[in-house]
Amino acid sequence: MIVVLTLLAGFLRLYRIGPTLQFLGDQGRDALVMFRLLTQGDFPFIGPITSVGGFYLGPLYYYLMAPWLWLARFNPVGPAVATAVLGVVTVPLLYLVAKKLYSHRVGLWAAGLYALAYIPISETRSAWNPNPMPLAALGIIYGFYTRKLWLVALSLGAALQFHYMIVFLGPWILWQLYLNRRQWKNILLFAATGLLLLAPLILFEIKNNWLNTRGLIEFLGKHQYGNLDWLLVIKNTIGRSEQVIGMVLGFGRDFNLLRTWITRGFLLLLIIFFKRVKFLAIYLLTAILMLAIYQDNIYPHYLGFLFPVVFILAGAIFSRLPKLISPAFAVLFLVYNLPPIYTLLHQNGNLANVQKTAEFISEDIKQNNYRQVNLALIDGTRDYPAMNFRYFLILKGAEILPIDQYPQTQVLYLVSPYPQTDILDQPMWEIQALLPAGVVETWEWPDRENIYKIKRL
């Protein structure tokens, strides 16, 4: 049965992955880093910068994905396939961990729900640094349960480089380390392994006057985390629990009554079966409380460190319910998850259009023998330097100025999926740094990005 579930998970994560791939600014930025690593030996010591707080993650993600980019001949589909494969591998591993913690039946429930859940599927069909997080979280769970602290250190070191949200698991991790406090050799091995994995980021901190540390202190002060309204935090646990449980299980990203009642039922059953599931229940409840303290928006990819625990607990709970209730939940689960999965598998991504647009700009640069060229993008994603288009232009050998050299730019190609007017009045540094300038040529199409060529006067 687990073989069938794994094959099904593979189909849902790999089917039409190229045509549906969204290659956005973050993916373009990462692809450029990996391209330079592979072609110029430019080894990064830091990873992507976070959208909240402006912290730098570690570089592990780049080293994991770079071989796949090389195997795909620098096609971004390569890292996306790698991410999907990691998502597929997570399914049998989830079964094995759930079986180890509870039973074969719980393992099948957990793996089956995870294989067919919309949120985990959607989060593993593109290359992005948070997407391998569920596998790292599974390693943390299994490592602590079996007291293999070296595995915890490896998994935690990786998780800290995938996304900063893993820090919200801090109290549970400290509690587990406290329970293992007499295993001095394992604790020392845990510390050594963790330091080794995080060494590049630590060296970056030392070299750059503790940039991340200072940024963290500024971030905490700005959001007044030292002066919390605990009544508000307790109130926030309701919304956060619905996101962690109801949303992750596929019952809607926005508030709805079904998601609310699914979450309440889940938590009620968690309390009823608490003694049986205490190890993971504390993991989940700790994370929900910590997320209630967090004062910014929560998106599905933030919750990757909770995917395994939610599905294992779901398996542990629903496998013990009366025979009529469990199948009813399974049907409801499929009714809510299968339609968005179908849409996901049949939508069209933007990769082909990004390539076409980059090819067009590359040809125009060559025909006019331009020098000191740069790119900009207006599309609502705030990727103003157009990193996805920039990647393909650099891949084609076009000489594009770095993103900090817009004041030296002579020709700027502005890309936008929407028709633009009053381009020179746009409040973007990428455009304003070029002034005085004029729009010398315009290409607008109904089925792909529009291009506006701006030259310095």
Automatic annotation (TrEMBL):
GO CC term, one of those recorded: plasma membrane
Keyword Mitochondrion: no
A Gene Ontology molecular function term of the record: pentosyltransferase activity
Places the protein is found: Cell membrane
Main location: membrane
Taxonomic superkingdom: Bacteria
Membrane topology reported for the UniProt record: Multi-pass membrane protein
Keywords: Cell membrane, Glycosyltransferase, Membrane, Transferase, Transmembrane, Transmembrane helix
Transmembrane segments: 45-64, 76-96, 102-121, 151-175, 187-206, 257-274, 279-295, 301-318, 325-345
Keyword Nucleus (UniProt): no
Biological process according to GO: lipopolysaccharide biosynthetic process
InterPro entries on file: LipidA_mod_glycosyltrf_83
PANTHER family linked: MANNOSYLTRANSFERASE YKCB-RELATED (PTHR33908), MEMBRANE PROTEIN (PTHR33908:SF11)
Protein name, as recorded: Uncharacterized protein
Source organism (scientific name): Candidatus Beckwithbacteria bacterium CG1_02_47_37
Taxon lineage: Bacteria, Candidatus Beckwithiibacteriota
